[in-house]
Amino acid sequence: MRITKRTNIAMRVLMFCGAHEGVLVTKAMVAEKCNTSESHLAQVIYKLAQLGYLYTQRGRSGGFTLARPMAEIVIGDIFREFESEQHNLECFADGDNTCPLVKGCRLRLTLKEALEAFYNRLDKETLDNLVCGNTALLELFVMPSCHSTRPLRTGTDRG
């Protein structure tokens, strides 16, 4: 199974924010602990904020944090948002499908059912399930003392 790099990064960002719940974190912090570039992060953070999963605060003491409780962030929803643009198989593509078997192919239906089973399983998981009590993950996300985390300021700078 393959998922896109953007989906993978989105999950890393959300898990990192969940591990630092209530604290503004920075792209640099996430990039360091999640082994990804800040430019890739910027695109994913922007989309997560647009979808209402992250609260962002601009400026010198800016950063981002979860915009809703972890128990309300359903993993299947994240995957649908980030994977919906991707067609792994030509037969799922509406416009550029040139497969001559599309009208009589039962494999397409089987694959569609398998994909739904995949999403149905992910719908049973929340960010809370992935982060809370996961000592190994929390230990990976511990920040060295040279990084200061910023307490969440209340304000209206969302976006």
TrEMBL record:
Coiled coil: none annotated. The keyword DNA-binding applies. Pfam families: Rrf2 (PF02082). InterPro entries: TR_Rrf2-type_CS (IPR030489), Tscrpt_reg_Rrf2 (IPR000944), WH-like_DNA-bd_sf (IPR036388), WH_DNA-bd_sf (IPR036390). SUPFAM superfamilies: Winged helix' DNA-binding domain. The keyword DNA-binding applies. Keywords: DNA-binding. GO terms for cellular component: cytosol. GO terms for molecular function: DNA binding; DNA-binding transcription factor activity. NCBIfam families: rrf2_super (TIGR00738). This is Rrf2 family transcriptional regulator. The lineage of its organism: Bacteria, Pseudomonadati, Pseudomonadota, Alphaproteobacteria, Rhodobacterales.
